[in-house]
Structure to design on (345 residues):
């Protein structure tokens, strides 16, 4: 073991690069674990940007921007044909 | 009333102890069970944060800029953004289509509207929120006041219990008065009855006396009348006539004079 703190309890930012595969495999991949992970992510975002007294537009804006980027990635396959030059 | 609820709850808690160990006293099991040992998290509920996480350009959270600051300084993320966008454009990972121009116009319009009216819309929504919160606060205050009133009333009732002896004193006095009145009333009635009997005896005696007197008088009269014989009656009448004549003469003589 390269570190003294057990691997299980470290957060992602403290995990060293070599230990990353082990750390990922250690996570909870049961259905309830996955659902829990999504719930936690949603709660973190919600409580940080939306569930505040004076929320700003950026709370929704970031979600919309992420959706735009995601849909662009999905439809890249068809958009490839509209390129102006074939070789870059 | 609240004390009764506490007592019934204590009795309900004491029931399992009675089932398990008859030898234990009623207070022993309650002494060993400890409640509320952990720290009370989220109680009272922590207030909502005032502002959300900071976001630059409405899109990128501040943490990203802080993450790059030690290595690249202030302009790092902007240079990264410029470089990335130029790279996507030149390699046509981002393809310029007619949709690009509509995107640019929409985004420009959105930015303009948000910059111009964002603050006022924010204030309006804040006002709505505050009204909602004020309503809930009102309900909470009303509930608190209600419970406080109930507590005060309970205390007043408990204080009243201390003063029950006044009531009992008054009742005792009333009963004593009623007894006295009844006693005197009966005493008076007894006195009247006795007087009645004595009066009866007196009136009986009086009546007998009167009857005897009357009887004696009648008897005397009867004997007197009986003793006046017939002849004596004639003599008496003649004398009366002679006397009357004399008197008449005297009267005539006087009237002439």
């Amino acid at each position: 073991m390269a570190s003294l703190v057990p691997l299980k309890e470290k957060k992602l930012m403290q995990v060293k690069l070599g230990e990353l595969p082990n750390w990922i495999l250690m996570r909870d991949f049961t259905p309830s674990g996955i659902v829990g992970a999504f719930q936690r992510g949603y709660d973190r975002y919600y409580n940080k940007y939306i569930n505040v007294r004076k929320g700003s537009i950026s709370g929704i804006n970031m979600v919309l921007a992420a959706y735009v980027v995601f849909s662009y990635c999905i439809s890249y396959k068809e958009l490839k044909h509209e390129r102006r030059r074939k070789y870059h | 009333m609240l004390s009764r609820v506490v007592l019934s709850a204590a009795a309900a808690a004491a029931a399992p102890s009675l089932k398990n160990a008859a030898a234990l006293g009623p207070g022993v099991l309650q002494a060993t069970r400890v409640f509320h040992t952990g720290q009370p998290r989220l109680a009272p509920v922590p207030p909502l944060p005032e502002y959300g996480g900071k976001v630059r350009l409405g899109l990128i959270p501040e943490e990203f800029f802080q993450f790059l600051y030690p290595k690249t300084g202030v302009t790092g993320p902007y240079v990264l953004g410029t470089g990335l966008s130029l790279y996507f454009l030149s390699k046509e990972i981002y393809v310029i289509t007619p949709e690009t121009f509509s995107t640019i116009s929409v985004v420009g319009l959105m930015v303009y509207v948000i910059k111009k009216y964002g603050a006022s819309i924010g204030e309006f929504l804040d006002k709505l929120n505050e009204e909602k919160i004020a309503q809930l606060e009102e309900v909470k205050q009303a509930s608190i006041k209600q419970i406080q009133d109930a507590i005060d009333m309970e205390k007043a009732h408990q204080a009243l219990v201390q003063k029950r002896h006044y009531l009992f004193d008054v009742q005792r006095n009333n009963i004593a008065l009623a007894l006295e009145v009844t006693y005197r009333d009966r005493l008076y009635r007894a006195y009247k009855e006795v007087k009645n009997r004595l009066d009866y005896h007196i009136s009986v005696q009086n009546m007998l006396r009167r009857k005897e007197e009357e009887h004696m008088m009648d008897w005397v009269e009867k004997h007197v009348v009986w003793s006046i014989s017939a002849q004596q009656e004639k003599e008496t009448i003649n004398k009366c006539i002679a006397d009357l004549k004399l008197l008449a003469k005297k009267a005539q003589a006087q009237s002439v004079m």
Notes: The longest helix of chain A spans residues 31-50. DSSP finds four helices and no strands in chain A.
